[in-house]
Design brief:
The chain has 463 residues and is of the alpha/beta class. Helix content is 48%, strand content 17%. A five-stranded parallel beta sheet has the order 2-3-4-1-5. Strands 8-9-10-11-12 form a five-stranded mixed beta sheet, sandwiched between helices. A two-stranded antiparallel sheet has the order 6-7. β8 and β9 form a beta hairpin. The model has no long low-confidence stretch (mean pLDDT 94).
Length: 463
């Protein structure tokens, strides 16, 4: 069943109905649902769907020839092979002269790797034949850096030929709840924290009514798809997966600055920077800087993909027990008891997402939202604010705290974030928000009723 992506699908269908030539670029990290979106769009439409291979130019020409032939001869095992890519693309031109045709090149970076001139060939045929045709061209790719620089970038032969682009992101918490609507809010949050809102991982986790059982069967199990997914993805995308694995392990273990990471991995800083960039391009890690400050000495690296963060937090240290089939013995004391701590950073992400995309009646129009950290000059100690929301204009800010714990949050938390707001900067007006999984004490609720703080529960975010 196809979930979410309604806006993208609606826009693609609007463009299709219009009848003009289209060249759409669809890109995003692996497993995020790009191909599922394209397949849903292509239903009941004349389509040539070519999935490029990480193989030779000759093998890709054979695959393209088969895709063209299958349009009118579905189910055939073999197909005549065009003499060249020019001949194959000329056949696409011929079909598009007679009917509205969707032509998909999935995993376009593979084709560009095998055929160095393909982008120039497409540019030429778009300019001279396709731009006045009924063709609906879709170029799709998972290599973020390639799609952004080699397809969308100014120096690309295809620059200026696209008519639209879709960067497919992971689902938000609220979007992801459509997959398992019968789960409790807390269960939904945990599924989101494990999968990071990646539809493919949500499906593979396959939660029916018990997240614990799903984890034991579909992740902490050597025969399961998810057990080896991070390692398989690194092998598929990168030439030296072992070193990348070490870099991610270092970050998962608490190293956050480039010099700390390079020291832990045992490689030079300049070399480490190249590995970090590749992981950034894949969306596995991310760079963070305190909101309102420019990137610099305070910039840190964190694992940006929640599935990778979850996997590296719980799998490597328990691999021996999992391989020995002892997950039942270790799950409760070694894994389950730490899940609430793990969910702390996930909950912060969910709260920022809620304010930026779903909250109504905010006191300011948000320009940006993130976290902030800096030194408290009075005690010479670093403090961290979970949420800082900056305004489009003016000097009013949102200051927020996020608590994913079993006991209600009390008045002391409001006093703490008021103090942190003073460290962030005096002379500004602040609107305070506190998010809690388990509600609030009576005293804090009374202050909320008086308008001194906005209180939001996990259930409030789910509605």
């Amino acid at each position: 069943m196809f979930y979410c992506r309604d806006n993208e699908l609606r826009d693609m269908n609007r463009r299709y109905i219009r009848g003009d030539f289209e060249c759409l670029i669809v890109y995003g990290r692996r497993r995020v649902g790009k191909t599922a979106l394209i397949n849903e769009f292509c239903k009941n439409k004349p389509t040539v769907f070519f999935s490029a291979l990480n193989a030779s130019d000759k093998e890709n020409l054979e695959a393209l020839s088969k895709a063209i032939y299958e349009k009118d001869h579905p189910g055939m095992d073999s197909a005549p092979v065009f003499q060249s890519f020019e001949a194959a693309l000329d056949q696409i031109t011929h079909i598009a002269e007679k009917e509205r045709l969707v032509f998909v090149i999935d995993e376009y970076p593979y084709l560009a790797k095998a055929n160095k001139s393909i982008s120039s060939r497409l540019q030429h045929i778009i300019d001279h034949k396709w731009k006045n045709s009924q063709l609906f061209l879709i170029l799709c790719g998972s290599s973020m850096s390639f799609m952004e620089y080699q397809v969308l970038g100014y120096e690309s032969p295809l620059y200026g030929r696209r008519t639209g682009q879709y960067k497919i992101q992971a689902l938000t918490f609220k979007e992801m709840t459509a997959f398992n609507p019968t789960l409790t809010t807390e269960q939904q949050a945990l599924v989101y924290g494990i999968t990071g809102g990646i539809p493919h991982y949500v499906n593979k986790l396959d939660v029916f009514d018990d997240v614990d059982e799903a984890l034991k069967e579909n992740l902490f199990n050597t025969s399961s798809y998810l057990f080896e997914e991070p390692e398989n993805l690194l092998k598929q995308e990168l030439r030296e997966p072992a070193i990348y694995n070490s870099v991610i392990t270092a970050i998962a273990g608490g190293a956050s600055r480039s010099n700390e990471i390079s020291t832990k991995v045992g490689i030079e800083s300049a070399i480490c920077a190249k590995y970090l960039k590749a992981l950034l391009d894949l969306g596995i890690i991310k760079k963070e800087t305190p909101l309102t400050e420019k990137p610099g000495k305070k910039t840190i690296y964190t694992i940006g993909d929640n599935f990778f963060r979850f996997w590296y937090r719980f799998v490597p240290q328990n691999t021996s027990s999992i391989s020995a089939g002892r997950i039942e013995q270790i799950y409760a004391p070694v894994i389950k008891r730490h899940l609430s701590d793990y969910m702390g950073l996930v909950f912060e992400q969910m709260c920022r997402e809620y304010l930026l995309r779903y909250a109504t009646d905010l006191p300011i129009i948000l320009s940006d939202i993130g976290q902030w950290w800096g030194t408290d000059p009075k005690v010479k100690k670093e403090v961290q604010i979970d949420i800082v929301g900056s305004p489009v204009e003016g000097d009013e800010y949102i200051i927020g705290s996020c608590k994913y714990r079993s006991d209600p949050v009390g008045v002391d938390e409001l006093e703490l974030i008021r103090h942190y707001a003073d460290v962030f900067g005096k002379g500004k007006k602040y609107h305070f928000y506190i998010f809690s999984k388990s509600g609030f004490t009576k005293g804090l609720q009374e202050l909320g009723d008086m308008g001194e703080v906005n209180l939001v529960t996990l259930d409030d975010m789910y509605r």
